[in-house]
Amino acid sequence: MKQLSPQESKAIDILQRDPLRNINLINFIKGYPIKSIDFAGDSLMVRGCSYANWVYISSCDVNEFALLTERLTLEDNHFAIIEEWMLPGILQKRDVVWNLSCTKYWLPPDVILPATINSIRSLSPNEAHYIYDNYTYSKYVCPEYIADRIENGIGLGIYDGSKLVAWIITHDDGCMGFINVLPEYRRMGYGIDLANALANKIRERGEMVFIHVEDSNMKSLLLARKMGFLEYKEVHWIKTESRER
Q1: Which of 7, 158, 220, 227 sits in a 20 to 30 Å window from 135, CA-based?
Q2: Which runs of consecutive H residues, i.e. helices, occur in the chain?
């Protein structure tokens, strides 16, 4: 983990007042280069870079949020974990290129997870392109990002001999993601085994276990409910284009 600056430490102190709501941004600040942090009361706007230059905004106050959005620049076009009520303010001077909307779910710490049945191994960054080529949401990421997450996050896989047939990886904000099982290997318990294994590893680090699921992704939704995840709220990742160029 990187050494936090005084400004980053101040931001995390504010964010930890509501850890479920802010866990994405807390983890992102701890793990990635932060370019700037703007404060408005108890609200804050953070610019940082993983595979894109992301803007995070944490706010519960309409007036503080308005003050922060006034400080947005023409270059601010990737937004992460945006709540529904924030969208009109962000899109006032921007057009949407894409919007990935998901529901956030979290796993209470008292939920007991079963032991895994299948043999699970750590992934290698060399497998990033293969994972990317078999990833439903590949348009939102890049192979370099996947390699980074395998190297600096947690990446687990199940193999048939030397062939990688199922995998799961933590994202840059610490959430569980990238889960996929090749079609010919489904209905063998690989998905839930990987999810349980990753959740336990996250817990071993003393961190919160959470995921984001599109409402249309019934397989992941059923998996989350089976494991004991609880629904929190809808959030959005948005890529935009500024109108004022």
Answers
A1: 227
A2: 6-15, 19-31, 62-69, 87-90, 128-133, 143-152, 190-204, 218-227
Q: Is the pLDDT of residue 234 over 80?
A: yes
Distances (CA, A) of 105 to 68, 141, 143, 222: 27, 21, 26, 12
Using the predicted structure, report yes or no on whether residue 89 has a pLDDT greater than 70: yes
206 burial (CB, 10 Å; 0-12 / 13-18 / 19+) is: exposed
CB-based contact 102:224 (threshold 8 Å): no
The secondary element (H helix, E strand) that includes residue 209 is: strand 209-213
Phi, psi dihedral angles at 198 (to 5 degrees): -70, -40
Residue whose C-alpha is closest to residue 65's, from 90, 31, 48:
90
Residues 6+ away with beta carbon under 8 Å from 206: none
**Structure token pair of residue 117:** 């049945």
Q: How far is CA 163 from CA 8, 86, 130, 180, in A?
A: 42, 44, 11, 14
Q: How far apart are CA 23 and CA 208, in angstroms?
A: 8
List for the chain the helix, strand, coil content (%; round to 5). 35, 35, 30
